[in-house]
Design goal:
The chain has 262 residues and is α+β, with helices and mostly antiparallel strands. The chain is built from 6 helices and 9 strands. The chain has one domain. The structure holds manganese (II) ion. Manganese (II) ion binds next to strand 2.
Length: 262
């Protein structure tokens, strides 16, 4: 049930991704996959309820509490997706290269901090309730990401909103890093390879053809959000410069007149 959308989007005879299977038992692991599809993004996944709850984060997670990172909730993934690193062939959903950027475990946290501002470890049931409510607090123990975070769902009242937009925010704690630059941590947590090296394993020529093939509407939802966010960041539009259209048309009319007169 939980993996229907995952199954519907994929053809398992032509992708190396694992088939859909809901696990009976959940441990609390997390994975962040760097995914160069038509748009580079990071997939943030928390193991809970027998699947990997998943968000696509265009700019990737940050340890800087000032960064509120857009996180688009996407379809649940099977737990066996956890260590998937490699190439999704051209023509498949999400075609491109996948790196396991970070792995580790996570703990559910209380929804409200204690008097001293710290968060207590909570139960899996509380995590499920928080996810439902759209305000999930958790603590990560990863190779790159550590400390307390929140995933907060944006209000879906706005026109055009699908209710899948969340923000991933680092809480202020001893792991908070002001000015965190994700590009400085650019190798696989499993194999220490870069995306280019992962892509190269099966021939970089194939990688080039992947890039051309995936510019379809498949990632339009993400492209739209990224464009909106960029526009917002760039501020209000500058007035458009006057175009050269008008004088040219005038000139053409004049020339026609001349011809008729001749
Ligand atoms: Mn992805």
């Amino acid at each position: 049930m939980a993996l229907e959308e995952y199954k519907r989007k994929r053809r398992f005879e032509s992708t190396p991704e694992p088939p859909p299977k809901v696990e009976k038992k959940s441990s609390h692991r997390f994975v962040v996959q760097k995914h160069r599809a038509s748009h580079l993004h990071y997939d943030f996944r928390l193991e809970m309820e027998g699947v990997l709850k998943s968000w696509a984060v265009p700019k990737g997670p940050s340890l800087d509490p000032a960064d509120k990172r857009l996180a688009m909730q996407v379809e649940d993934h099977p737990v066996s997706y956890f260590d998937f690193e490699g190439i999704i062939p051209a023509g498949n959903y999400g075609a491109g290269t996948v790196m396991v950027w970070d792995v580790g475990s996570w703990e559910p946290l209380s929804s409200k901090p204690a008097a001293d501002g710290s968060y207590e470890v909570a139960s899996s049931a509380e995590a499920s309730a928080q996810l439902q409510k759209g305000d999930l607090k958790f603590r990560l123990h990863g190779k790159k990401l550590n400390g307390d975070f929140a995933l907060v769902r944006l209000r879906s009242g706005r026109p055009g909103s699908k209710g899948t937009e969340w923000l991933l925010i680092k809480k202020r704690d001893k792991f908070a890093t002001d000015g965190y630059d994700i590009d400085q941590y650019d190798v696989s947590a499993l194999t220490e390879r870069t995306l280019a090296e992962i892509a190269g394993d099966a021939g970089s020529a194939e990688w080039e053809s992947n890039r051309a093939a995936v510019t379809t509407s498949k990632n339009a939802w993400l492209a739209g959000s990224v464009a909106k966010l960029r526009k917002r960041a760039a501020g209000p539009d500058k007035k458009k410069a006057p175009t050269a259209k008008a004088p040219t048309q005038r000139k053409q009319r004049k020339q026609r007149k001349k011809r008729r007169a001749a």
